[in-house]
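User: Is it possible to get a 3D structure for a protein together with its bound compound? The compound here is nicotinamide-adenine-dinucleotide. I've pasted both below.
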Amino acid sequence: MVSETFSGQVRENHMKAREQVRDSSDFNSWIDGSRYDTEKTFETIDPVIGEPITTIPRCHSREVDTAVDAAWRAFDEEWSETTPAERSQLLFDWIEVLRDHIDELSVIECIDTGKPISQARGEVEGAIGTLAYYASICQSQEGRQISTAEDLHLYTRKEPYGVVGQITPWNFPIWAAAWKLGPALGAGNTTVLKPSAEAPMTTIRIAELSEGIFPDGVVNVVTGTGSEVGGALTEHDRVRKISFTGSVSVGQKVMKAAAENVAPVTLELGGKSPFIVFPDADLEKAVNAVADGIFYSTGEICDAFSRTIVHESVHGEFVDRFIEKAESYTLGDPLDEETTMGPLTTESQYETVMEYIEAGESEGATLLTGGGTPDDTDLQNGWFVEPTVFDDVENDMRIAREEIFGPVQTINTFSSYDEAIELANDTEFGLAAGIATERTSIVHNAAADIEAGLIYVNEYGPILPEAPYGGFKASGIGKDLGTEVLDHYQQTKSVYVNLDDPEL
Ligand code: NAD
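Assistant: Yes, that's possible. Here is the predicted structure of the complex:
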């Protein structure tokens, strides 16, 4: 279905939104508490109209050096002296400013990524909620006293690394930035963050909105390409920890680069998450969960439920209902509140998704719906792809094995519990999985048997800051979110104090 409000008016709406966001900021890098411009720039493109929104500084290793120096200065001179309560207060001060800019940040995220405005707003609020969580829990950091010989006082201290390097992708820019910044700052580190060149605007803007709150150099955002800025950051010998979110192939490069400096890494990588529909499932819940899990954010989601594995006894009914659901999405202008699916974020992602759709057809899967771009001529300048569903998918087909990162669902069937689990686990990835069933015994057995870091039962999402988030197998190392991520941004020191008998 194509939104009726999507007409010649759309370009005008986007031009207006572009002017509005450009009035708020020049979207420079943010280094040492100041805006930082470079001679060379790159453009960030509005995926609805295929035109630039603004230019962004194209930094290189020199700017990474400057930012790392600033971050160390800030750490040594001020940040390392702050108490958790002081850091908590500063995070809450920042959150208060961000709350005043929710509408502005939502529009920026919407036009930079193509996400429907309602989803962009939800992610801005999610980012603020994540920061608030770390502002709260960072106050309760503590070491441990270890009981041992009477003449010994033995205890542990948790200490920050100092300067950490953080790299984020383009699919959840502001949310991913908050996942990184909240715990790193709360744990007492200063940071140099590199957002994706494809959608860097909200990350720049939230850094600017920290002006006057954190000491200069505590938060640095260096913009540029992956190889020029990301490479320089991960290879930097004064960056003491790296946290990366992105693809497996780049994650491997990041890990190799960090190994040179023996810097610990957290890797949040891709996925090919299964969703198993058991024979007793409430099919309405199952259809909604799978649809949310593959069509939210046009399928550009790391934990997308991209492989649905349906029991043969309910396959026919599930497929009928799922096609109806897929065809009910409203493709249109993401600035319109009625739109439920926007374009893909980049032209190259559009090409990738279309190639996978062709591969699915040529490998013999049955295309049930979608597979193309909407007919409406008003959508032709945007990178729109219809919600697409393939049936009769074998697990060795490329569309079942590789991360597509688009609104493409694959469906295959199973006949026994063991077969379902085997199919679910037959993947290099292990980020997330879903199951639909009303039986408690299946819930807990499947949750234990599936190799994935997140299990959703009868739903897709939510993602809450309280719960650790991260993958098994090739989907990553370590976690974002939850209390344990504070540990990932700290190192433990054991202190032995000799308590000889006092002789006065
Ligand atoms: P990507 O790997 O291409 O890029 C991620 C980031 O790394 C970008 O900022 C990029 O500029 C940077 N980069 C590129 N080359 C680099 C290099 N040589 N050294 C250092 N940094 C480099 O990923 P993407 O296309 O931006 O994002 C999509 C991928 O991210 C998908 O695979 C998706 O599943 C994954 N992802 C994972 C999670 C998670 O939490 N597990 C969340 C969101 C996205």
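Residues 117-137 form the longest helix (21 residues). The chain has a mean pLDDT of 96.
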